[in-house]
Specification:
Layout lengths: L1 H42 L19 E8 L4 E7 L3 E12 L2 E11 L10 E9 L24 H8 L5 E4 L21 H27 L3 H4 L1
Parallel strand pairs: 4-6
Antiparallel strand pairs: 1-3, 1-5, 2-3, 3-4, 5-6
Length: 225
């Protein structure tokens, strides 16, 4: 009995830990699915005027409709679109009333980088966003070539002399620019895979525990003699 007591306790404790981690990931999965549903509902809501006071957290994904003037000047953020290839997001200043904000007009292929785009009076609908795309590996922008590698809103606002507010267009602002609207595709949701991994490890742990208990109970050769 003493020979199997320690493996039994060790096996039960390890199994309990792995099962609890799997259950926690299931809870996280439910939370993330509810969060994504909430974000999708906010993205698809009715458009409203640009709020006077803005909170980057509270107003993230808010649908907004603005009218005014698309101003000259733009920055090009390098991106890649599935089944299309590399290109640029076109970020431009937009004056609405007495305010000037950033508008992400959408995508153009690399061959259209230098093409002149429509400016002047227009209406734009889209969603407010403050993307978090900067990390320690993000290169500095190539100012001379006007190539940027992330939509860092404060930095772009300084470059284009606007408020640090970004509207990602859903409506088309130029015949040759394809809108890339906000969606939840870029928000990771790997909790199901994590749960399967933990429960799979729990199954393996249980099998190993049973095996060691069986080996511990089997009589040695000296005992059999």
């Amino acid at each position: 009995m003493r020979r199997i007591l320690f493996p039994l306790i060790f096996g039960i404790v390890g199994l309990a830990i792995l099962l609890s981690l799997g259950a926690w990931q299931v809870q996280r999965l439910t939370w993330k699915e509810d969060l994504l549903a909430e974000i999708e509902g906010r993205i698809a809501g009715d458009s409203k005027p640009l709020p006077v006071e803005l909170d980057p957290e509270g107003d993230r994904y808010t649908p907004v409709a603005i009218s005014g003037q698309m101003l000259p000047g733009e920055v090009h953020v390098l991106v890649s679109v599935k089944q299309v290839g590399p290109g640029y997001r076109i970020i431009a200043p937009f004056q609405t009333g007495d305010r000037t904000i950033l508008v992400d007009r959408g995508f153009v292929p690399t061959t259209a980088k230098a093409v002149e785009r429509q400016i002047g009076a227009m209406e734009v609908t889209g969603n407010l966003h403050w993307p978090d795309e900067i990390d320690s590996y993000t290169p500095e922008p190539d100012i001379d070539e006007n190539i940027w590698f992330a939509r860092d809103v404060p930095t772009l606002a300084t470059a284009l002399n606007t408020e640090p507010v970004l509207l990602i267009a859903r409506s088309r602002t130029d015949a040759e620019v394809t809108p890339l609207p906000v969606d939840t595709a870029g928000i990771p949701n790997d909790h199901l895979q994590y749960a399967v991994t933990w429960f799979g490890l729990a199954l393996v742990w249980a099998a190993m525990t049973v095996y060691f208990l069986w080996r511990s109970r089997a009589p040695s050769k000296s005992e059999a003699q």
